[in-house]
Amino acid sequence: MSQINEFFSMHPEIIYVLRIILAGICGGIIGVERTLRQKDAGFRTHIIVAVGAAIQIIVSKYGFYDALINEAVKVDVSRVAASIITGFSFLGAGMIFVKGVNIKGLTTAAGILVTAAIGMAIGAGMYTVGIASVALLLLVQIVFHKFLIGFDKVLVNDTMIPCFIQIENEPNAVNKMKKFFEEHDVHIADSSVETAEENSLLTIHLNVMLGKNVDADEVMAQLLAQPSVKQAFALR
Question: How far is residue 19's CA from residue 32's CA, in Å, rounded to a whole number?
Answer without folding.
Answer: 20
